Amino acid sequence: MCIIVKVLVFFTLFVSPIVMFRTPYDQQEYCGELFSQYDPHLLDTFKLEMSQGIERFFLLSYCLACCWPGLGAKSELRVVRQWAVLDFNFPSEEARTEALEKQYFVPGNSVPIDVDVHHRQGALPSRIFVTIPRFDIGRPMTLGTVDENGKLTAYPDYSWHENQGSNCQGMTSVFRIAIDQCQRLWVMDVGKIGDNQVCPPQLLAFDLATDQLIYRHVVNSSAYTGGSLFITPIVDVRPRGPGDCADTFVYAADVSGFGLLIVDIKRNLSWRAVHRYFYPYPSRGTFTIDGESFDLMDGLFGMALSPYQQGRDRYLYFHALAATTENILNTKVIRNDSLLQDPNIDPDAVYAFPHERPSQSAAEAMDQSGILYFGMMDPPSIWCWNTATQFHVKNFHAVAINQETLQFASGLKIVRNSKGEEELWVLTSSFQRVMTGSMSPDRINFRIHAEKVPTILENTPCRAAPKGEGPGHHADIVASRAGHMRRPYRYGSAWYL
């Protein structure tokens, strides 16, 4: 009997009755009773057959989906986890009490921003990583993994977080992370709590096989400003052969310093780059989501790399949060360490697509086929665009639209599972209620969604590229048509002083 039939039979016979229970305790009690009577061998078979990727978060969580919180969401994406407020696992009750007393933990203050997933081989469980930046006090940890009950556990352990900025060897505040094909977790620590720069920014890398720190780069003061906030790291691994991870660059968006940090991992060297397209557009600085409005003049925010082809340079796709444009640059422009002497990028080396999105977008990510996925604010939604086609609304295709569950897609990743399949993972939040102070614990505020990329593409025209045109085709056209006229350029009047 195929696994689908098994699950349908199981769901019909055992899971359906659970909807009648009103409380999680009733559901858990029923699940426990059910599992105690169920054939352990067949249950183990279910687990084995569904352990190779995204499925391990569905049908098995909460008594094989009996308590799956996203069951009723009207979306092409499945809800993996959801919260009204975040809760945390502490190493001891004493540590929790101390965090409450010192206001290191203020219940209801924590806001998740990013998600990434590490699918491990064999029987080892996959891990969902979530970041919680320290916008203010009350966040006991800034990076954690999500357990089956939805609680967050500090990564790699609580000692990295409890210092709250008093020990710069730990983590201060992390907005986003990135897992590369070399099984390294890259962590961009901004070093700020609120607006206070308590530690210098630093880039960390952990070996996911051992959870040990394998790289640390403390950003030189010449590469950031007092207003800098490095929120989005993108990892560019340039292998010469299988398993080669030596030639790696990390690009980090400086959302409020309106710049880009480039870190050459091999040489342990970093520099800053600036360009006018890294700035916000004042006319796009007002956001209205679900009837609530706020102003946020954030610059460079969403970034994604075109697929790697050996011997060729990649495009970096990017946009400001307060913008509706999408831009591109060839990564050879920013990998040039001459920017150490002059951080200003040649204006004609960066290109903007002629057309714009209908509304602002936050995070974005690209799959191996060159399809870009991004969220939009109005309506709250996730879209795809095949980069072989023109960047135009006619080529944007909806993956999911949901006024309630997709309100602000702040984290968006393409993840490869242990079968080699790509998955789309998205973290959404009621960020407008965070900004306006109207967030309530009486409703769901944060969600993690996921779906396999092939399943998504079955229902959209995004997979159909024009004949003979590959990923980045439109970027190639835009770059080749752009005129190149040398002229003086500097950003900021301070350069002349």
UniProtKB/TrEMBL annotation:
Entry keyword set: Glycoprotein, Secreted, Signal
Compartments where located: Secreted
GO cellular component: extracellular region
Domain of life per record: Eukaryota
Subcellular location, principal: secreted
Signal peptide annotation: 1-17
Family as reported in the entry's similarity comment: Belongs to the major royal jelly protein family.
PANTHER family with a match to the protein in the record: GH10609P-RELATED, PROTEIN YELLOW-RELATED
Protein name as catalogued: Major royal jelly protein 1-like isoform X1
Originating organism: Trichoplusia ni
Gene name as annotated: LOC113492137
